[in-house]
Design a protein that fits this description.
alpha/beta; homodimer; 15 helices; two-stranded antiparallel ribbon; 363 residues; 47% helix; 11 strands; 7-stranded parallel sheet
Chain lengths: 363, 363
């Protein structure tokens, strides 16, 4: 029997419901900028040792919740767990990004690809259940996955890339191969997110981190269409409560209308977007999540408060659709170089400075 | 006495005038993907040896013009010549990007910064004059500079960056310092481009390569305003002919209306933008340059022709403002890994497939 939720501001804002203050959480809030995270990471021995152990994952997921007045927790995991479960062989070299031993480079490799048995991802679902218990209803827990396209980028490139040359060569030269990868990814991601919901995730987010590198036209066919396939298969409720679906395309500004029409409850936006204009483009039925530049956190308290105020004001500019439907966040993951005390300034400023926008008229 | 221009399609398209076919040139068309470039580079001994020698610069500028039916040449030079002339100490380590020995990291360094004596950039203007002579009127020559903001990124970071942490920290924490750098850069860039025009450049382009990393609001104050200052100071004519001004902000899609209102003749756009929608946003008085994903050139001839056709069709979608005002280009520099023979396919496809759009009605 799960503990009753003590702070549902985040879930309510995702669904466009009235809230007393704008809720806030930060992408990568459980991460290297926190000394307590680095201590756990050292005990775990490696990044994979940390990410695949439900106890460690629980510990680091709760660290920012203990330190800051955040309104949501997000599962600590890696974006590449699903392709790893497909047998591509994920590894992390010290000081480098992720790498696959067996990237998808030819027709035979693509032909062999299959939707993985979710039992291989049991450690993730165990972590979700463990975190839910540890949170004991303090804030809701967000589950997540990479989008089919973003996973495909890593699966074909085998690592991060500056130019996405290999996956885009496949896109333009052998679109049939890429479509097969994406169809399998869409099915796998939907199963993966639904299993996270079953394990206790109270909202789920699809990170289309590399959607923004696609050309207009290609984005719609190779990213958006497969994100839509995932969303159509996702569970909508758990424990009798709606599970919000969040889609975040980094660099997705050019396609906000189309992203807003996907059927997700919340669209995440990066800092290049003006929130008021974005609201007009996605429509009043969709909430927005974002969008402070993480580099603001390197400035002093006064500058941080000023930028928080500007972000809140941009959401409420015009204000025709009312004050609801905003989840404050960064426009990208928090930098490992962030001074931890600056995050307090940010979180407190969001709550304090957003309150007047939510006050009933006349108060 | 300059040779008469034999192919003015590019200049005419920049000014929205009627042309028989859509002109095409490619960002970084003189570069590493060409074996003849690599041979000249080897003779020059180093990248700086190549870029600072007018004879070598002339040779490599003409190489793609000799090989392909391109409609414009662009000065071979480096984007960081101006900060180098300011005394920041540019160097290129083998296999790495550019690096400054003395980046602008504190108030004292910013206070010492001055607009450089253009005599220090004489080698660039000599290259422009030499290239004009060598071209002998075959196609027009484009001069260029980095934008004030893009130069400032390198000047503060000291090298390329993934997150622009140092320059954005200055932006949010000490905007006064950044504004001083940008004001000096704007003056220097205007002097630099005007000297290129005096030396024979028939069009000039401002590369705001890193404008797209800025947040909405910050882009307008720290990039756009200073690009506008440059444009206001630029010469409009040379040899009795209009010198088109081109502005390209990589990732500038969110701000196309504002960029289109800068007063430039041409706005360059990357591949995330739909050309027909971009036309509607910048207005009929401004031409567009772009916007094929350079990765298309890794596919085969049929796919390249298909993507060229799609790009041309996107420009002419709706077509209310008529068929003119398009300069075909990539949405970013050509990759060093591009097969040279694929560039022929691209260039010839642009000319062949655009001709019907430009035919007089009824023919």
């Amino acid at each position: 029997m799960p503990s009753p939720l003590q702070n549902d501001t985040f879930l309510r804002a995702c669904l466009g419901e009235a809230v007393p203050v704008t809720p806030v959480w930060l992408m990568r809030q459980a991460g290297r900028y926190l000394p307590e995270y680095r201590a756990t990471r050292a005990r775990a021995g490696s990044f994979m040792g940390l990410a695949t152990n439900p106890d460690f994952a629980t510990e680091v997921t709760l660290q920012p919740i203990d330190r800051y007045a955040l309104d949501a927790a997000i599962l600590f995991s890696d974006i590449l767990t699903v392709p790893d479960a497909m047998g591509l062989g994920l590894s992390f070299a010290e000081g480098e990004g992720p790498r696959f031993e067996r990237p998808l480079r030819d027709e035979a490799a693509v032909a062999r690809l299959e939707v993985p048995d979710m039992a291989r991802l049991r450690y993730v679902f165990d972590a979700v259940a463990s975190i839910r218990r540890a949170l004991a209803g303090r804030v809701p827990l967000i589950g997540f996955s990479g989008s089919p396209w973003t996973l495909a980028c890593y699966m074909v490139e085998g690592a991060g890339s500056d130019d996405y040359r290999l996956v885009k060569t496949m896109l333009y030269a052998r679109p049939d191969l890429l479509h097969r990868i994406l169809a399998i990814n869409a099915e796998a991601v939907a199963l993966y997110l639904n299993a996270q919901i079953d394990a206790g995730a109270q909202a789920v987010m699809i990170f289309d981190s590399w959607g923004g590198v696609l050309a207009d036209g290609a984005f719609q066919r190779f990213s958006l269409d497969y994100t839509r396939q995932v969303l159509r298969r996702l569970k909508r409720e758990a424990d009798g409560r709606r599970v919000p679906h969040i889609v975040f395309t980094k660099g997705g500004g050019p396609w906000l209308e189309a992203i807003g029409a996907l059927g997700a409850d919340v669209v995440g936006v990066d800092w290049t977007v003006h929130l008021g204009q974005a609201r007009a483009r996605v429509g009043a039925a969709v909430a927005l999540q974002g969008n402070l530049d993480p580099n603001v956190l390197f400035a002093g308290a006064e500058a941080i408060r000023g930028e928080v105020a500007a972000t809140l004001a941009s959401f409420h500019a015009g204000s025709a659709p009312g004050p609801n439907g905003h989840v404050f966040n960064l426009g990208h993951g928090i930098s490992q170089h962030t001074p931890p005390e600056h995050v307090s300034v940010l979180v407190d400023a969001v709550h304090e400075l957003s309150r007047p926008y939510h006050a009933p008229a006349g108060t």
